[in-house]
Amino acid sequence: MVSIYELKPKFQQLLRPLVRGLAKIGVTANFVTISAAVLSVALGILLLLYPSYNWIILLVPAFLFFRMMLNAIDGMLAREHKMESSLGSILNELGDIVSDAAIYLPFALILDTSSAFVVSLVVLALVTEVTGILGTVIGGSRRYDGPMGKSDRAFAFGVLSLLIYFFSFPTVIYTIVIAALLLLLILTTFNRANRALKEVQS
């Protein structure tokens, strides 16, 4: 199914001049990866401390786009500038999981819907990423299948943040949105597991 992840090659092409410049001044892929995680945790703490300060939520869509840039940059630095390492692979996967949890869990306090519902969404998002990693465990590739991968979740929460700030919807609307995201995550988990199995069996 279609995923924003499919736009990654074009996004990388736009970032390539910046990546070359960063490599020239000695910026490493691991530094970028760690920076993205640290900044994500900082934003998450800010959201947790001030869940009722609506203006803070406007930082979310801007930061999620910035984080997508950092995620693309660290990968390009690693692959195109000979910075790949086992440590880098571990940091990349852990960084994504920590960053997602840090940014999305505060929505349990912010959204006008069941907190448990939102926490379940975040947990399932992490399960989706672990399922993608398991593709390598069984001898295949890291799976990034959609329809609700990392980039898609960032887009969804970015839009959700804007809706929260600019509009006032009843609880049922947010409940429906979270339910839809949960269903998409379940489908994504199934797709990744199914395609990983087909890959190793072919």
UniProtKB/TrEMBL annotation:
GO biological processes: phospholipid biosynthetic process
GO CC field: membrane
Keywords: Membrane, Transferase, Transmembrane, Transmembrane helix
Transmembrane regions listed in the UniProt entry: 21-49, 55-73, 117-139, 173-190
Keyword Transmembrane helix: yes
MF-aspect GO terms: phosphotransferase activity, for other substituted phosphate groups
Pfam families (UniProt xref): CDP-OH_P_transf
Keyword Membrane annotated: yes
InterPro entries listed in its UniProt record: CDP-OH_P_trans (IPR000462), CDP-OH_PTrfase_TM_dom (IPR043130)
Official protein name in the record: CDP-alcohol phosphatidyltransferase family protein
Organism in which the protein naturally occurs: Salicibibacter cibi
Taxonomic lineage from the root: Bacteria, Bacillati, Bacillota, Bacilli, Bacillales
